[in-house]
Automatic annotation (TrEMBL):
It comes from the Eukaryota. Residues 275-325, 464-483 are annotated as: Disordered. GO terms for biological process: Golgi to plasma membrane protein transport. GO terms for cellular component: trans-Golgi network. Belongs to the PHAF1 family. This is UPF0183 protein. It comes from Penicillium subrubescens.
Length: 509
């Protein structure tokens, strides 16, 4: 059902590219690339629980509404709410044939039951009748379902009976043409709605993959497993997991597993290098975020990671030809994987963060080899609605495996829960109660000023639309607030957290 509908707007036919299972990033990017076809975009989400509740993309000028689940941000439901906004075609058959204009208006009603039954989809099992919620209303709703698609017909409540022949009833004057159409994954709407936002999507996150050779695209990442000691595992849709070992995985290894990056950037700006943990007695020691047993906490200071809305003179885009010639890569650069939801920092090998004390993962005993460039940091983007970098990456989901029980912290966990667990894990490694207090003290990032550390810090983002102090606006020139987020550091991990407790970005180093 996903790719079988064509919609004609303004005399131009355009195939509906938003297949079920597509990521919010993929769909929103496509919609925004056609402003004449989709002139209005309305995104609705929960400001308090943006990662748990559905995200709704409304296209009022097109009569469409798209619903995405919150945790994975994948398209679960496509609804046509206004049939007058475009000519809908299914397998070269006009869905609206037989539609009527409402008396006194130019609004085109949807298809009638006879057209759906005789011309489009044929016989169906009985549907579901929903009585009117308003006692004064004369019409309820009869939902007629086919595999993957359903129609809603207004039906006179007085005409309804459980013993009625639904075909005869919907063919009579008691039923009006359909007011909406829904596209979903499932054999019927009653069966699908109970697991609409939780079942495994049938199709991939990128619509382009559906109709093309799978070998032409890198396999999509389902989950990043953070094992500790600089070891990560990328769980993939169709292929075995891919391993990333900080300080050992090379740029060529990265490309072999995940394809070429969407962009490569290097950056010279080090305006917040004062905040690096430099050991005892220095300014950096006083300002460091948290202790890092075994390695020393370092605040990353060389990011581009595509989060900046404005590129300053310190940012340089590297030629894609550098990918095939590793000797031409700069000593420090970022591989930006927008469609995978992460960035990789490429530099000379450094010692990664320590293993979790509760884990059986062992730390590498090999010393870094300076001549060869490797991946030294992985930046996982949450794509949280309302944050400053929203829709620059698709959402990356992750799990932190603190021990072998499998009960780890996830990208959907509130940061209060994450912080509590990590502080418990590292409590025996703190040298003093002061270090324990420091671990709970965040650094604040301001995304509202163009000359702030936002343009050089490794975690960028966190402009929230609403806060406890009132509404904010995004980076559109309206000063609704500073848009601050907070950085919390733990050994080998750095979290950027929004005011609502959602993790906007996680760096593993």
């Amino acid at each position: 059902m996903n790719n079988c509908f064509d919609v004609e707007y303004g005399g131009r036919k355009r195939r509906v590219e938003a297949a079920l299972g597509a990521s919010l990033h993929n769909v929103l990017t496509r919609v925004k690339s056609h402003p004449q076809t989709y002139p209005e975009i309305d995104l609705a989400y929960s400001s308090t629980d943006p990662l748990l509740n559905p995200v709704i993309l409304k296209l009022p000028a097109n009569g469409l509404r798209l619903r995405f689940d919150g945790p994975d941000q994948r398209l679960r439901l496509i609804e046509v709410l206004d049939f007058s906004r475009g000519s809908l075609v299914y397998k070269n058959q006009d869905v609206l044939k037989g539609g009527k204009s409402t008396e006194g208006t130019a609004t085109l009603q949807g298809p009638n039951f006879r057209h759906v039954y005789n011309r489009l989809f044929g016989p169906s099992y009985p549907g579901e009748y929903i009585p009117p919620t308003d006692p004064k209303s004369q019409y309820g709703t009869y939902v007629l379902s086919y595999p993957g698609v359903s129609f809603s017909f207004p039906l006179q409540h007085s005409a309804w009976s459980d013993s009625c022949d639904f075909v005869a009833l919907l063919s009579s004057s008691a039923a009006l043409p359909a007011t909406s159409l829904a596209i979903f994954q499932g054999s019927s709407w009653p069966e699908a709605r109970s697991k609409l936002f939780t079942q495994q999507p049938q199709y991939p996150r990128s619509s382009a993959v559906i109709s093309k050779n799978r070998d032409a695209f890198a396999d999509e990442i389902e989950m990043i497993h953070i094992l500790g000691a600089g070891k990560l595992e990328a769980e993939r849709r169709n292929n075995p997991p891919a391993q990333i070992i900080l300080g050992e995985t090379t740029p060529q290894d990265l490309i072999a597993e995940f394809g070429p990056p969407d962009a490569i950037y290097r950056k010279h700006d080090r305006r917040i290098s004062i905040h690096r943990a430099t050991g005892s007695g220095g300014t950096g020691d006083a300002l460091r975020l948290s202790p890092s047993p075994g390695t020393g906490m370092e605040i990353p200071d060389t990011d581009h990671s595509s989060n900046n809305s404005v590129t300053d003179d310190s940012d340089e885009e590297v030629s894609p030809n550098s990918i095939s010639d590793p000797t031409s890569l700069p000593a420090e650069c970022f591989f930006n994987y927008f469609h995978h939801g992460f960035d990789a920092f490429i530099s000379h090998p450094t010692t990664p963060g320590p293993a979790f004390p509760t884990s059986e993962i062992t730390e590498s005993s090999s010393q870094p080899s300076l001549p060869q460039l490797t991946v030294t940091k992985i930046i996982l983007h949450g794509n949280v609605p309302g944050s400053y970098p929203f829709n620059r990456h698709r959402r990356s989901r992750w799990t932190i495996h603190l021990d072998e029980s499998g009960d780890g912290l996830t990208s959907e966990s509130p940061f209060d829960d994450i912080s509590k667990r990590l502080r418990e894990v590292w409590k025996d490694s703190n040298a003093s109660p002061e270090e324990q207090r420091v671990m709970q003290r965040p650094m604040v990032l301001n995304r509202g000023w163009g000359d702030s550390p936002e343009s050089s810090v490794e975690f960028l983002g966190g402009w929230e639309e609403t806060t406890s102090r009132g509404p904010r606006t995004g980076p559109d020139g309206h000063d609704g607030g500073l848009g601050n987020t907070e950085l919390f550091g733990f050994p080998g991990l750095l979290f950027e957290v929004l005011k609502n407790g959602a993790v906007s970005c996680l760096t593993v180093y």
